[in-house]
Amino acid sequence: MSERMSVGVLFVCLGNICRSPTAHGVFAHHVAQRRLDQLIRVDSAGTGDWHIGHAPDKRTTVAALQRGYDLSALRARQVTREDFSRFDYILAMDAENLRNLQAMRPADYRGELKLFLDYADSVQHREVPDPYYGGADDFALVVDLVENAALRLLDHLVAHHRLR
Ligand code: 4NP
Fold first, then answer.
1. Catalytic residue among 13, 18, 43, 94
2. Is the whole model's pTM more than 0.85, yes or no?
3. Which sign does the torsion angle of CA 48, 49, 50, 56 carry?
4. What's the CA gap between 64 and 28, in Å, rounded?
5. Would you say the CB of residue 18 lies under 6 angstroms from ligand 1?
6. Does residue 34 sit in helix, strand or coil?
7. Burial classification of residue 133, based on how many CB atoms lie within 10 Å of its CB (0-12 exposed, 13-18 middle, 19 or more buried)
């Protein structure tokens, strides 16, 4: 199916080496498992440029793999204004990422620009906390929060866009 007919989802954090690659890998895994990969496009990017071309952070890779998600093919890139013409959902990991995206948002963007955890069950967490200066527990929390929100987002897309 062409890009225009599929639903595009872009996950965005600061570096694109911890949180948004986790969201990218976890969400893509469940999209594939439900055989929706022809209908839903998935990507991730960072608002910053420090890690362009880098693989996900080793601690992120380990935390994801412990839960059955392989992030090894992912490479960091920076978000661009063109992303607003390619993605119907642009989902920020935290409020700062969202503010930076809102500042880039073209006036005619008709997609959803919001916090990823708006789709989650959790009322305790509205943002995915930056684990970069944290420990293993912080990286595990990222997987927990992302996995729940990814499953709820997938349910939403299936229902809202009538994907079967
Ligand atoms: P991310 O985590 O935004 O979840 O990829 C970070 C990665 C790198 C840096 C900060 C956060 N950094 O300062 O380089």
1. 13
2. yes
3. positive
4. 13
5. yes
6. coil
7. exposed
